[in-house]
Amino acid sequence: MNCDKKDLLLYAVTDRYWLNGETLYSQVEKAIKGGATFVQLREKNLDESSFLEEAKEIQKLCKEYNVPFVINDNVEIAKEINADGVHVGQSDMEAQNVREILGDDKIIGVSAQTVEQALLAEKHGADYLGVGAVFKTGSKDDAEEVSHDELERICKAVSIPVIAIGGITHDNVKELAGRGIVGIAVISAIFGQKDIENATKELKAETLKTVNND
């Protein structure tokens, strides 16, 4: 499956923290209805069997809406359910190794904070890069901030699409205009909102403006 940069416009990363008695399935469906173009299932604390069950459910939902679906970090589960791909961080498996396990037709995303990391990920077969944190973020304790100038340098250095991640909201996304990104990845800006569908719709409109300003 090829990674179309249009699919990377509004990349929703799941987080159980915001469930408030809802199911992840219903929240993801609202996000997709609101215009999310890509879904990453991110689970840091679920046991393997629960993760697997959940992954199958969300995968089915994404297929219905024709939205690419990737798994965060867990290459084994991505392979087992034949997900569209996987997203790995710098401390996880190298893109090269992931590619060997999943094959050429899967989407591989890699987190990068520097031009050097970005070039290496591209060389090793990454299809897109997630660069950040571009703003202060509460969702990832260990996220180091990446300056907007460095973000732009990364976008210019690689030929694969780059999305910005980390602390992005409806109000600050426009600050990323002109840097070369094709989209944004968010957690709380979608899943932490009271009206997920509407919040996604409004965020998508702002992101389109931001990306089209390049």
Automatic annotation (TrEMBL):
One of its GO terms (cellular component) is cytoplasm. Binds 1 Mg(2+) ion per subunit. 4-amino-2-methyl-5-(diphosphooxymethyl)pyrimidine binds at Q40, L41, R42, E43, K44, N72, S111, K140. Mg(2+) binds at D73, D92. It is an enzyme of class 2 (transferase). GO terms for biological process: thiamine biosynthetic process; thiamine diphosphate biosynthetic process. It catalyses: 2-(2-carboxy-4-methylthiazol-5-yl)ethyl phosphate + 4-amino-2-methyl-5-(diphosphooxymethyl)pyrimidine + 2 H(+) = thiamine phosphate + CO2 + diphosphate; 2-[(2R,5Z)-2-carboxy-4-methylthiazol-5(2H)-ylidene]ethyl phosphate + 4-amino-2-methyl-5-(diphosphooxymethyl)pyrimidine + 2 H(+) = thiamine phosphate + CO2 + diphosphate; 4-methyl-5-(2-phosphooxyethyl)-thiazole + 4-amino-2-methyl-5-(diphosphooxymethyl)pyrimidine + H(+) = thiamine phosphate + diphosphate. Its cofactor is Mg(2+). GO terms for molecular function: magnesium ion binding; thiamine-phosphate diphosphorylase activity. It comes from the Bacteria. PANTHER family: THIAMINE-PHOSPHATE PYROPHOSPHORYLASE (PTHR20857), THIAMINE-PHOSPHATE SYNTHASE (PTHR20857:SF15). Belongs to the thiamine-phosphate synthase family. Condenses 4-methyl-5-(beta-hydroxyethyl)thiazole monophosphate (THZ-P) and 2-methyl-4-amino-5-hydroxymethyl pyrimidine pyrophosphate (HMP-PP) to form thiamine monophosphate (TMP). This is Thiamine-phosphate synthase. It comes from Ruminococcus bovis.
